[in-house]
Amino acid sequence: MRKTLSTVSLAAVVAIALGMWLGPSIGWATFALILLTMVLISGNQHQKFQRWVRDLNAPPPPSMGPWDDVLAPIYRKLKQNRIDLQTLNRHLEGIMMAAEALPDGAVTLDQNMNVQWCNQTACQHLGLNLATDRHQSIFNILRSPEFADYAQDKAWEQPLLLHLSQRGRERAILLQLTPYGLGQFLLVSRDMTQVEKLETTRKDFVANVSHELRTPLTVLLGFLETLRDMPADSLPIEQRVRYEEMMLEQAQHMQAIVSDLLTLSTLESSPSAETAAVPLNCVIEQALHRVQALSNGQHVFVTNIDDNLWLEGAETELASAVGNLLTNAARYTPKDGTITTSWFMNEDGSATFSVQDTGIGIAPQDIPRLTERFYRADKGRSRATGGTGLGLAITRHVVVRHQAELNIKSRYGAGSTFSIHFPKERVRFAKD
Ligand code: ADP
Q1: Which homologous superfamily is 276-429 in?
Q2: Which residues have a Cβ under 8 Å from the Cβ of 105 and sit 6 or more positions away?
């Protein structure tokens, strides 16, 4: 303003001087010309200003005369605001990313328990879809009377465990509400399905072990009590010997269960064992000798073993898997049946160990469950032959630890083939 006034005053002084020198009309004409020029310049600056206002990101136009002093600080302020906004956005993005990365689900709810925001994990846990469920009441999404009671009771120190079914899949979700901010609520969810499953497995396992040990223990105790209560000379010697043999059998069965349990626990708790090139043909031969002794000439044994084919692995573990498959073949194959043992290399360089029998076979519905601990397809025969129900569970662990695959093919009443398929990376040769 001061600049404009001084320019107009200067123009007046120049016009008066010219008027006094060349006549008043020249003076007035000069003054009018200067004013007109000033109006034109101002109009041009106004246009430039309007253009700049439309894109405030660009610096203000240069040579704006009296506007320069106003525009420069406005532009500086705008620039600083933009930088502050960018910093804020970055912080916000960081917080959102951290909330997304949370292993737990998080849903923010307003005062009326309407969904404001949630992370991806919460979407999976609760079947939420933020695009359609934002501003919807959480009670319309989580249609559970237990959750409604929990939310209303406001006793939120303890979480609530809900069993939700999503796309046919049952999930155990732990939910906890917490108030925050100005009357808002945070709903945290945690998937407990796996933990619950493990807990059930643990309980089942303890129950199974107790049950498995209780039977032989009861028999053993029965005999011992009988022997204790009877006068020493009242029992014929043959009967005493028979009792002792039966007691020994039960004790051996308990020992077998404990030994298999220890093997399983070692396999489950230890990292993969040290490996070496194992002459698997020798391991198979040794197991075959033991099983032939067990078979006592009742079965026909056929072998098809590549002596040159070795395997990189843990020898004791491999011996246990091979022994289990061969023992089972003998156990579940009636007299005069044939047991064929093969160890060979496949065309693609991988190797297969297989045991084929002409035994009792397995019903299709039992096959997927055979490697579960204590699962028996034929309970009577397993117990009668001293089976622990843990052999195939041990075998499965060994197979997994060798990156191999266990295949079971069987026809009920017609025999079974159990094969372990080892990857070619584990194959070695005798001459290596
Ligand atoms: P077990 O000690 O009872 O043999 P396993 O874990 O070795 O336990 O085997 C689990 C079950 O699988 C056995 O109880 C039996 O019913 C079935 N099974 C295993 N091998 C054979 C086989 N070769 N033929 C028929 N059934 C088998």
Answers
A1: Histidine kinase-like ATPase, C-terminal domain (3.30.565.10)
A2: 118, 119, 121, 122, 123, 124, 125, 126, 187, 188, 189, 190
